[in-house]
Amino acid sequence: MIKKVRNTTIKEIAREAGVSIATVSMILNKKDVKISEATKNKVLTIANELNYIPNTMARSLVTRRTKTIGLIMPDITNPFFPEIARGAEDRASKEGYSIIYCNTDDSIAREEKYIETLTEKMVDGIVLAHSSDREGDNAGLVSCRVPIVLIDRDYDIPNVAGKVLVNNKSGSVKAVEFLFEKGYKNIVYIAGPMNTRTAKERLEGYKKAIIHKGIEFNERLIKIGDYKSKWGETATREFLDEGVLFDAIYCGNDLIAIGAIKTLKAAGLRVPQDVGVIGFDDIYMASMVDPELTTIKQPNYEMGYRATELLISAIEQKEKQKPEKILLETKLIVRKST
Question: CATH classification of 63-165+300-329, choosing from 3.40.50.2300, 3.40.120.10, 3.30.200.20, 1.10.3720.10?
Answer without folding.
Answer: 3.40.50.2300
